[in-house]
Design goal:
Helix content of chain A: 40-55%
Structural class of chain A: alpha/beta
CATH topology of the largest domain in chain A: D-Maltodextrin-Binding Protein, domain 2
Low-confidence stretches of chain B: none
Largest sheet of chain A: 11 strands, mixed
Number of domains of chain B: 3
CATH superfamily of the largest domain in chain B: MetI-like
Shape of chain B: elongated
Oligomer: heterodimer
CATH architecture of the largest domain in chain B: Orthogonal Bundle
Strand order of the largest sheet of chain B: 1-2
Distance between the termini of chain A: 68 Å
Number of strands of chain A: 11
Largest sheet of chain B: 2 strands, antiparallel
Number of domains of chain A: 3
Number of strands of chain B: 2
Largest interface: A-B, 38 and 41 residues
Structural class of chain B: mainly alpha
CATH topology of the largest domain in chain B: MetI-like fold
Strand content of chain A: 15-25%
Helix content of chain B: over 70%
CATH class of the largest domain in chain B: Mainly Alpha
Number of helices of chain A: 15
Radius of gyration of chain B: 30 Å
Strand content of chain B: under 5%
CATH architecture of the largest domain in chain A: 3-Layer(aba) Sandwich
Distance between the termini of chain B: 36 Å
């Protein structure tokens, strides 16, 4: 088009069109230039995103000069799928729940990352051996462990306080309302653990129709007293207002309420369900190189452990365990607050992401039907 | 003369083209594509053409032949290499829980295996392949045009021989939810009418200055963010909230007898009524303002009591507003989503919450589309009944 202008005269009535075309082209270039300046990383908002900002995004930009634009979302694969299917990818790296990472990887929505490409541990142990079993997929390695456990407000109890997962389901011993997340995940597992199923058999029992019935029967015993929550910010609020006497919650949220707000909350680690997140690259991103650089940075043991200085989520790499130290702002010792601390693991279940990708839809329908009755 | 007139008419019609194009692109096209999704599911049929062709000849009563096993293995391998297997496995899994991992594990095993007998290799990786149920699920998932989303949305299912049967009672969810949605919408419409009618009457008959002030009071909450209003209701209604505190302080209820006003149907009804009330008041007000006070005066000068005058003179004239307001509130509440999600708790969920789940989380867009179509048909049916009873030409929005 530029050559055209010099070569021959353009009819006057076309000049307007050409000017418009140039404008559009210039805008396109400007637009592309803008987005190539940095990468877009999508996280979960709230205190977890704030931790990732300080522990990952800012140090990464300082080291590489690549800017990180942060966006927040509420999980799920719907937006990633829409971007990949329309070929208009503007998210580069997304922090996913592990079940979604596995599913998205299988469906080709995420870039393949060979586990051997990820940085080794400081002592040279390859990443493959350094990650805990099952915490990496074909699209990258896990980030941090988080846990759903139940917590209570000490002000709600004058006498004996709950200490086991059975107590959560025991209305006679501890009357009062309970908060639970309005999804089948975690709740069905906790119900079975409270009903006496050993942790290593929970998913085997839940794979049988009788096992599912058994879990729902256990949930039936407290159904009338349950307040259902949706967002992670709700349980600490409900506990502070004494709207409920105990509630399942993400341990990081309770930690923040305990340490930063001084709330009289106690976490009961018995029967906790551990899960982990994973950062992955959206398939077909035009900024693949920068996104990979970020993923490698975020997979370093030091980076993963740094998140644990701002929120009580612990590393998914073995070599990260010795790096757990103190809270960056208050100096509180972090280890006792970590879901993977040995004394918190006496009865702990690891969430089986693959099992849930098989059964989530069916059990969510059943759970919704059960709720509505 | 006639020619210039028709040209002017054409030019006027041309002015609506941008709007028509806008509606076409942003409304009709997406709606149409969702409608198609509810019965058209080509994904599995496109991914496993040869397996499905070979299953067409299969009797369905015993495990398929070695040949079918070989064809399936070849197609699974190809899909695995193209990274397209996940979507296929998810769809088959919807028809038989557990098939997703059966398929993914098999594909993973096939990456290295060089089998002599395909049948033995596949059943050794996952015994599910030795059961006809797995193959029936593959065959059914391969139907390009299917009614299964509609069956699912109506709490129906097919048994192994293909007959339509009712879903097992503990999985029946959509029909009760649809009925509940219709019931709640009717209740909200009725409450809005009871509350809104006197307010509209008051505004229509007040002095201009007072009418403006009252209208502002109606409109300010209307302009406030929906989320802010909904969360304020949580603050007011919760167990330790303002309303319960006042009742306890007044000695009406005891401290341990606090009322459950939120996270249940009460919360949904209260919050949705407040959110939708302006949609009732404004059309009512518009119609009432045009009713001359002379009519009521004439009625009373002819000896009618206030009630007789109201029932026989005023109410019939305000009916167009009642019709417009009720229809508006009813249709808005039938698709309401955020408020029930936030304050509905266990018993206050509506059908739109389930549609959102299938759109955003399970990614079962076919089922979401079928639910949407059923909801749309229900609304259209009610609209027709309404038209018969009230008459749509009598409805006035202003």
């Amino acid at each position: 088009m530029m050559r055209n202008r010099g070569d021959r005269r353009v009819p006057a009535r076309n000049q307007g069109t050409i000017r418009l075309a140039l404008l559009v082209a210039a805008f396109g270039v400007w637009n592309a230039g803008c987005s190539s300046e940095g990468i877009t990383v999508v996280s979960w908002g709230g205190s977890y995103e704030a931790a990732a900002r300080k522990a990952l995004f800012e140090p990464f930009s300082a080291e590489t000069g690549i800017a990180v634009h942060v966006e927040s979302y509420n999980g799920g694969l719907a937006q990633i799928r829409a971007q990949v299917e329309t070929g208009n990818v503007h998210w580069d790296v997304v922090d996913l729940e592990f079940a979604d990472a596995v599913k998205g990887c299988d469906e080709g929505l995420l870039e393949l990352i060979d586990i051997d490409e990820l940085p080794p541990a400081p002592d040279g142990t390859p990443a493959r051996d350094d990650y805990f079993e099952g915490t990496y997929s074909d699209c990258g390695g896990g980030a941090v462990y988080y846990s759903t456990a139940y917590a209570y407000n000490r002000d709600s109890f004058t006498g004996e306080r709950p200490s086991t997962i059975q107590d959560f389901f025991d209305l006679a011993k501890f009357p009062g309302r309970r908060g639970m997340r309005r999804v089948p995940f975690v709740n069905l597992e906790m119900a079975l653990m409270a009903d006496g199923v050993p942790t290593e058999e929970v998913y085997a029992v839940l794979s049988t129709p009788e096992g599912v019935d058994r879990a729902f029967r256990k949930l039936d015993t407290i159904k009338a007293e349950v307040v259902w929550w949706e967002a992670g910010a709700q349980p600490p609020q409900m506990l502070a207002d004494q709207e409920v006497v105990m509630s399942t919650a993400y341990n990081g949220r309770i930690f923040n309420a305990q340490v930063l707000e001084g709330q009289p909350f106690t976490i009961v680690w018995d029967g906790q369900v551990l899960d982990y997140g994973q950062a992955a690259i959206v398939a077909g991103t035009p900024r693949l190189e920068a996104a990979k650089q970020f993923l490698m940075f975020a997979s370093r043991v030091e980076s993963i452990a740094a998140i644990g200085r701002y929120i009580a989520y612990s590393p998914t790499r073995r070599s990260g365990m010795s790096l757990i130290s103190t809270h960056a702002e208050t100096g509180v010792d972090m280890l006792p607050h970590m879901p993977s601390a040995p004394e918190n693991l006496t009865r702990a279940l690891r969430n089986d992401a693959v099992w849930w990708t098989n059964h989530a839809e069916e059990l969510t329908e059943r759970f919704s039907a059960w709720l509505a009755r | 003369m006639a020619r210039t007139l028709s040209r002017a008419r054409l030019r006027a019609a041309a002015l609506t083209l941008p709007l028509l194009a806008f509606v076409g692109v942003t409304f009709i096209a997406p709606l149409g594509s969702m409608l198609v999704r509810s019965f058209h599911e080509p994904h599995v049929a496109d991914a496993l053409p040869q397996t499905l062709a070979s299953l067409r000849a299969w009797d369905g009563a015993s495990v398929p032949s070695e040949d079918t096993f070989r064809i399936l293995a070849t197609e699974l391998r190809r899909l695995d290499q193209q990274r397209k297997l996940g979507g296929v496995a998810t769809r088959i899994n919807r028809l038989a829980g557990g098939m997703r991992s059966t398929i993914m594990d098999t594909a993973r095993a096939l990456r290295t295996a060089e089998p002599v007998s395909w049948r033995e290799t596949l059943t050794a990786t996952d015994p599910a392949w030795g059961d006809e149920a797995a193959w029936l699920a593959v065959r059914r998932a391969g139907e390009r045009y299917t009614m299964r989303h509609y069956l699912n949305a109506l709490d129906l299912d097919r048994d192994s021989s293909g007959n339509i049967v009712a879903q097992s009672p503990d999985r029946r969810i959509y029909l009760p939810l649809l009925l509940r949605t219709l019931g709640v919408s009717l209740a909200i419409t009725f409450i809005c009418l009871i509350l809104g009618y006197p307010v509209a009457y008051l505004i229509a008959n007040a002095s201009p200055a007072r009418a403006n002030l009252l209208l502002l009071l109606v409109l300010v909450p209307f302009w406030t963010s929906l989320l802010v209003r909904t969360t304020s209701w949580i603050v007011l209604l919760q167990n330790q909230g303002v309303v319960n505190d006042l009742l306890v302080a007044a000695g009406i209820i005891g401290d341990d007898g606090r009322l459950a006003l939120v996270y249940n149907m009460v919360g949904t009804l209260v919050a949705m009524t407040q959110v939708l009330l302006p949609f009732m008041i404004l059309p009512l007000y518009a119609v009432m303002r045009s009713i001359s006070p002379m009519y009521l005066r004439a009625a009373s000068s002819l000896g009618a009591t206030f009630w007789q005058g109201f029932v026989r003179v005023y109410w019939p004239q305000s009916l167009p507003g009642v019709a417009a307001g009720s229809l508006l509130v009813f249709i808005l509440s039938i698709g309401y989503y955020i408020t029930p999600a936030l304050v509905g708790g266990r018993t206050g969920q509506l059908i739109s919450n389930m549609i959102a789940y299938h759109m955003q989380e399970s990614l079962n867009w076919g089922l979401a589309a079928a639910l949407g179509v059923i909801l749309l048909l229900a609304v259209m049916l009610l609209y027709l009944v309404y038209n018969r009873l009230v008459g749509i030409e009598r409805m006035r929005l202003s």
